[in-house]
Structures are given as structure tokens and as C-alpha cells.
Amino acid sequence: MALARTDRFRDLGRMGMLLAFAVCVLTTGCSGKRYLEQRSAPWDPLTQPLRLLSRRGPQPTERTINLLRRYDLVEARKNDLPFVLEKLQQELVHEPALEKIYALAELSYIGAKQARRQGDRERAKQLYAVAVSHAYAFLFDDWPEFVQKRNVYDPQFRFACDLYNQALEGSLRLVDEEQPLLPGQTITTRIGEQEYRVKIELQGPWHNDDVERLEFVSDYSLKDGLSNRHHSFGLGVPMIAIRRPHDGESPAEQYYPSGISFAVTAFLRVHEHANDNDVVCILELIDTVATREVRVANRTVPLESDLTIPLAYFLDTPEFNEQTNTGTLGLLNPNRTEKARGIYMVEPYQSNKIPVVLVHGLWSSPITWMEMFNDLRNFPEIRENYQFWFYLYPTGQTYWLSAAQMRDDLLKLQRDLDPTRSNQSLQSMVLVGHSMGGLVCKLQAIESGDDFWNLVSDQPFRDLNASDEAREKLKQLLFFKPNSAVRRVVTIGTPHRGSNLANQYTRWIGRRVIRLPAMFVKDNERIVRANPGMFRNTELLTVTTSLDSLSPESRVTSVVLNARRAAWIKYHNVIGVAGNGPLTYTDGDEQGDGVVSFASARLPNTTSELVVRSDHLSVHQAPRTILEVRRILLDHLNEMHIAASSDERRQIR
After folding, report:
1. Among 282, 106, 115, residue whose Cα is nearest residue 196
2. What is the C-alpha to C-alpha distance for residues 615 and 261, in angstroms, rounded to an integer?
3. Rounded alpha-carbon distances, angstroms, from residue 273 to 199, 203, 270, 485, 502
4. Which neighbouring-strand residues pair with 608?
5. Which of helix, strand or coil describes residue 194?
6. What pLDDT does 84 receive?
7. 45 DSSP β-pair partners
8. Considering the entire predicted model, what is its pTM?
């Protein structure tokens, strides 16, 4: 008895402290973590090789000094860089060699950095242009002797890539300070006697009107919130494109959150000469989610890209945080977060990609999925075949009410994007839910029959006395069928049999601090008063909070657990286990993730079930869980391809 009392007060104290903290956050407006911090100076991979920050100023590499020594230009470089560049250019014309082209690129870049430091913008612009063009020639000039001697294993080859990238970035910074870089524009600039016309083209699923401005990835570093930075090496300047709303948007764009930004890489092609004094260049802004490579000189060239910094930039925007980071408010006052409820896309909708809908748990928001999203998107086979959506809902209300709202939101999206239900990708959806979000997902994949209505009444639904509107709302809540577009459901750390943390004491506190949606409560109270004696349990309609719905004592729990599943939907389950115990358990074991017991997290008749060593709050962010979701998505993709091939064969016959 004493032990039971101790457990009771411990649970009561834990929940009381949690809710007290929630109230504190809600009333004081405490801000969340910051994902990025601005660097004091842009990151430059040439800082060490060229000693850009040394007291003596930038210095050439030893190989370039050896070349200068050969032509007796070492001392001249210190005092007269233009003379040295001119002499090397003459030697290059007289006897072409890759090492001379490289030296011209390197020395020009050093000169541009010095001119920039001295405030000579025109001189810096000219030397950056020389560095870009010569680095480009070193990498791509198709003169036969260059092709034969070009050695991608030589460290100088990578230095040439860095010179191209950094000189291009230096040029773009100078131009952007004078005139914002935006797709669809042609920027004209004169360097010496030559006029350069640079056409800016956006490549990928976004369009020109989507870009409000560009930022440089090298200005930022990760601070908190994302464990892994996904940066790939190649050519180009990784940038952040900040999106703006505009006229003429497609139906999908209503699902884009405010403040969205996306990753692009700027790549300059230097190849079109209108005349001797006029050079036409194409600056391509390439969406690196759509592609990580370009074709140059009949070769496939990887792009320098960064998917994580643009994502972190987006997560730090006040607009996005105000719109979607509603965990505490959604718990304590679901009514105030109702407008934010819905599906969010952080990438442009693409009809050929399968949607993965990520559904957060109690006292949470879509922010909680960014670790998984950041890592999954780095796998090419996932990035090329899937698009990730996020579902936001107020977590203070019962999960079956949230599930009913999600059903409506998914149906609306399908009507908006695929009214004829002909898009195979959109009809192959995968739902992934953490904690209570797993129950919300599961209710998209089962058939209610009369089971839910029988929980509240033993009389026929047709005898209900209510207005048409109220009757329809209650019908949608208690009578439903599986979503035909859903093909898989993945539950992670989900209390399939309830959580002991949601006991009578913590539920008592929850009922006093959580304010249920006003219209939902009033409508159901009106129905109860109009139907005396019809309902055996009115709490399910008028009082129950999310904590009540997660109680092991809730009768809804067993109904959901044993409900009829759709034959076409596969289930996968991930269980978190905290502590240092073994990773093999029986159904009787109580050890779990700290919130959900192992026994409650088990789900019968699943296609796969994985135990991961993690606590409840981070089980969906654990590397093993992310790899498991990747495996499931690859299996799903393979099955969809097999099914599509079978359909094609039947059509041929």
C-alpha cells in the first residue's frame, strides 16, 4: 500500500512539474533553441592552404612558388602582381600547361582577396573573374594535352575546384551588394574592356517568383538541434533561397509554411562568347534536392551542396516558429492552435514522389521530426522517390478527435492535388507517427464498424436526436473507413495499450489545465442533453483530454488495438527501451522508454518490429530508428515498382 502511494505521488509530481513548466513557457513566451549561428567570417576551405589570415597576407602554395621560381617571378609577385599575371599569361599562350593555368587562378584569387581587403571592389571583381575563368579552364578545357594530363587524384585538382567555388562566391558577393541576385535576371558588368552578361536561371521544381533573396551557406554554422550536417563536395556555391508567397500559386502551395527556404547551388558556365569584348555566362541556381550533379564538357560533375544549413535557416525563422512550433499551446489550449492545424510541405509538391506523412506526439510539433527528415533526405534513393509532409494537430484533445481531423485534412489534400485519384504516388502514402501520433496514424488505417459508437451508447445511431450538422460531425468521429491512399503505417514509441503515466491523478491535473476545443465540447453537450438516457458514457464526448485518452483504463484503447485493419496496409513498429538492460524482452516485462512500457509498445501482427535503445522523447530521432524507417521506405518503393511493372504487363496482354 505504501509502495503504491509512493508511485502515485511520484507520477503526480512528475506530471505536475511538467504541466507547471508548460504554463511557465506559455505565459512567459520563452523561445526555443536556435539551429544556426552566424560566422564571424565566411568559411573558406582555402584559408589554410593559402594562409589567408596570416600576418604576411595570403601566400601561394609551394607548387605555385616553384613555378614562379622557374620563370624568375618570385620577387615580382610581392611587388607587382599584374606584371606576374601578364607574364604567366604570355607563357601560357607560348606553351600551354595545366600548372600555368592553375597558378593564374590561384594568384588571381589571392590578389582578389587582397584588393577586397583594401576596399578596391573593381579590382577584386576583375581578379575574381580571372580566377573563376582559369579554374574553369583547368577543370574543363578540352585541349587534347590537358585532357591527357588532367589528374583527378592530384591534390591540385581539388584546390582548383575550391578556387572555382571561392572565386565564384567572392564575385557573387560583390554583385549581390550592388544588385540582388534573383533568377530570371540578366546582370551586366564590365571588367576591364570586356562586358560580362550573366543570365541567372533557376533549375528544379521551384520557379523564379518563389525566390525573395539568396543567402550564402558559408556565412552560417550549425549551433543546436540537428546532429548531422549533410554537405557534399563538388563544384558550385551552396546557397539558401528564401521563398516568398506570390500570385498565381498552384493548389499545393497552400500547404507551404511561412518563411520556407530551400537549398540551391550556384554554378557558372563560362562558355558563350557573343563577340571579342562581350562574354555571356549562365549562372545556374540548381535545386540540390532535385539533383546533385551537372553535365559539363560531356562529363557528369558533382555539385558542392548543403541540405542542412538551409533547413536550419528555415527552422530559425520567426514566421515558421509562430505558425508551427505550438507544442505547449497545443497541449494546454487546443482551441487556440486550431488554425495552425493541418498538413505542411517544406518542399515543392512533386506528383512523381511518394508522400511520407510524419505525425508528432503529445506536447510536440513538426519540429520534432527534423532530425529524421534531415538524415533521410540525404540518402539519394529516398530523396529522389519520396516527399516528406508534416501533420500538425493540437495535442491537448483526444487522439481520436485528432485522427478524425486528419482524415478530413488528408481527403481535402487529395481533392486539391489529385481529384480523380489517378496519381499512383499519391495513392501509395506512408504514415509515420511518434508516441500519440502513432495512434492518430493507426486510426487512418482501421475500420470503425459500430465499435466506437457502442462505447458510448447501446442504442442505434439512427435514433440520435440532433441537427444534421451535429449528427454529421459525430458520425465522422465515430464511424470511419481506412484511407485507401495509405499503404504503410509506422508507429514509434506508441502506447498501443496506454501509458501508466496517464493515471487518475495526472488525468485529474490535465482536466484542470487543458482547455478542450470549445465548439467540440458545446456541440456534444447539446447532443447529450437532447438525448437523455441514450449515452452510457458521456465523458468520451464532453470531458476527455489527450491524457484521458492515453490511459490504460480507457475503453477506447482495446477497441483501437483490436479494430479491423485494412488488408492493403502494412504495419511496422519501433519500440524504445531506456537504460542498460538487454534488448530482448517478453510480453510481461515492464521496462520501456520511460513513458511507454515495453508491453504497451508491442503491436501484434506487424510486418516488422524493432527494439531501439532510446528514451521516449528521442526514440524517433535515434540513428537506428532512422535507418529502420529508411529500410521500410526502400521496401515500400520496391513493392510499388513491382506492382507498377505487373500493371504494365497486364496492360500489354
Report:
1. 282
2. 32
3. 13, 23, 9, 53, 72
4. 572
5. strand
6. 95
7. none
8. 0.88
Residue 399 belongs to a domain = yes
**Would you say how long the chain is, in residues?**
653
* Count: domains in the chain: 2
Q: Distances from the Cα of 640 to the Cαs of 109, 505, 535, 568, in angstroms?
A: 51, 47, 45, 12
CA distance 140 to 147: 8
| 444-492 pLDDT, tens digit each | 999 999 999 999 999 999 999 999 999 998 999 999 999 999 999 999 9
Place 130 in a pLDDT band, splitting at 50, 70 and 90: very high
Q: C-alpha cell of 257?
A: 509554411
- Which of 169-173, 320-324, 505-509 is least confident? 505-509
User: Cβ distance 592 to 598 under 8 Å?
Assistant: yes
Write the CB contacts of 447 (distance below 8 Å, at least 6 apart in sequence).
480, 481, 482, 563, 564, 565, 566
d(CA 29, CA 9): 29
Q: Are 301 and 235 in contact (CB under 8 A)?
A: yes
In a domain, 204, yes or no: no
Residue 606: which CATH number?
A: 3.40.50
Count other Cβ atoms within 10 Å, centred on residue 484.
Answer: 13
CB atoms within 10 A of CB 324: 24
Domain stops at, among 152, 178, 204: 178
Here the cell at position 607 is: 510486418
